[in-house]
């Protein structure tokens, strides 16, 4: 088979460190498994601003579009906080999402048995938690026009953003959610504020229509986003798949991630439309941020990035077996008591980024 | 002194039951305290739709504007779910907020010592929790134009809402937050998505400006709304006062409320601009909804409504002593082991709405 084309964008903060561990696993696969990767690397975020003058160079954007999968570390940090809106590190990530048309963001919130105690919630509330949040990623208020800040005649200023969704934008992301639910608990909860926003009314209607047309084997319910924020705290295990828009998805997926208490463990995938071979444009990244406070100190948890790579193997390369290997290696290392600082608990052995990566490699 | 003018709008579901208990306390105050109330009642929400054909009649709107304070129960229920957007029960509440210009929504998230165990979070994470969320309530995407659903030439539909904030809208609600912080922990966290939304950039700038001009004695920090959703779960006690826009406030305040595990205990106040006597237009309501599943069964917890009335005494009528009396009566009844079903715990005595109301009255 032809080599698989990977683009690695380590980004800022702890990004380079955790992606270093991913590179080790890629090397191992090249040697030991029936697959080889062509790996390119590039800059994104603050690193790209510093070296190339913009948060995502056109050349990098082109490489991303041509790769089979993009693996991203994290972007942002205080160094670039004061930059004007259009030049911030985040724009690099948003450009990737938009130009690759990665409209479906898959964010699992999963509690590992070995880490139940890491949660601030009571163990019985989160043990076995396994939610998949499907967040719309290329539409809504993130990209809607008109937008901006304008001066008013009376000396005031006015800030404007536009939430906008079309039928097709809603249907294609809902389809991803329904298809995922079919392979899981067969339940989808769709979240909006249809009691307050017309865009939410349309969202609800279109999700319901698609369900009635093509996914009647999946149980669909609708929930206001504010209620969802409550229900995630009250009884998160009531959820299987949640589908929601870009902004609500941003907030609800972060809330759900934190329920697990182990952000450093959570991967994500951002997918586009299938091409004629059924393959989707794809970007994989950990849910955690660039964590500038611990960057460069060999303290970061590489597991979220490794599991993001496992997601790439599963979703982009159809290598479920290899993905399983990595996930099992992680489980065994955790069961063996190794912990990076972020998931440390009494009695466990605290290890560095590199040591954690090596331990997982050894299990492989 | 002239009689205080109260308008009671019981609304739907459990609204009438819980407001019935508030009426008892008002009667007691009329007899025993140095204050008398003129109480009018009116319909709002589904009850108003059924009886008067719209979720808030003009006559009721006028009464609300002329009252010193409005006490609201709750609105909404499955009976009215299929009504078109403009006729839903919620529109009654939104009209009250908008026409009374109640731009500052105060939503405390408070954990009562007796109810620490009601939370799904570990006791050490929430014990002593006392957050005040100040939510902007008359602007943003709830009211911005253009809005609606339009047909596209290709047969698709498009849903649109507009997030819009002006300098003054931001400053006046931030001022309420800073003033509250002065009487509390002197810390304000302002939440937006300034990394993604220009309206968030303006929000951040104006809150910072107002702080630097007039509230330097309060510590101000800025946090992205998604991070706030995480931090509320990770370590809620890091917050004192949170100020945020209408939509983020809707979600974050519900999340924060649920951290306490006892939604049935939480009051809220919605305040407008001070008039020449320093008095603000005001509406007080429990945080919980209309709970149609338990309506009419004498099961609901009246405490959130009673504490909302206590907030009215404190903020509108300057009767801090009377507010204290009610709050202390609630504390004592809880300490005595009485619980409505929603906050029931092993070993406590389960009581009905009416019994809980009477027990609190007896403590008074
Ligand atoms: C970095 C930022 C632009 C981004 C977002 O808001 O989408 C992040 O919070 C995320 O969830 O991936
Ligand atoms: C009922 C609904 C319109 C309302 C809102 O979204 O503001 C409610 O959720 C609230 O928070 O008071």
From TrEMBL, chains A, B:
Pathway membership, UniProt: Amino-acid biosynthesis; L-leucine biosynthesis; L-leucine from 3-methyl-2-oxobutanoate: step 3/4
Gene Ontology, cellular component aspect: cytosol
Main location: cytoplasm
Residues engaged in binding NAD(+): 77-90, 289-301
Residue ranges of domain Isopropylmalate dehydrogenase-like in the record: 5-360
Cellular compartment(s): Cytoplasm
Catalytic reaction annotation: (2R,3S)-3-isopropylmalate + NAD(+) = 4-methyl-2-oxopentanoate + CO2 + NADH
Subunit and interaction comment: Homodimer.
GO BP annotations listed: L-leucine biosynthetic process
Binding site residues for Mg(2+): 226, 250, 254
Role this protein plays: Catalyzes the oxidation of 3-carboxy-2-hydroxy-4-methylpentanoate (3-isopropylmalate) to 3-carboxy-4-methyl-2-oxopentanoate. The product decarboxylates to 4-methyl-2 oxopentanoate.
Cofactor binding note from Swiss-Prot or TrEMBL: Binds 1 Mg(2+) or Mn(2+) ion per subunit.
Ligand binding (substrate): 97, 107, 135, 226
EC assignment: 1.1.1.85
UniProt-annotated site: Important for catalysis, residues: 142, 193
Cofactor: Mn(2+); Mg(2+)
Name of protein: 3-isopropylmalate dehydrogenase
Protein keywords: Amino-acid biosynthesis, Branched-chain amino acid biosynthesis, Cytoplasm, Leucine biosynthesis, Magnesium, Manganese, Metal-binding, NAD, Oxidoreductase
Family: Belongs to the isocitrate and isopropylmalate dehydrogenases family. LeuB type 1 subfamily.
GO molecular function, one term: NAD binding
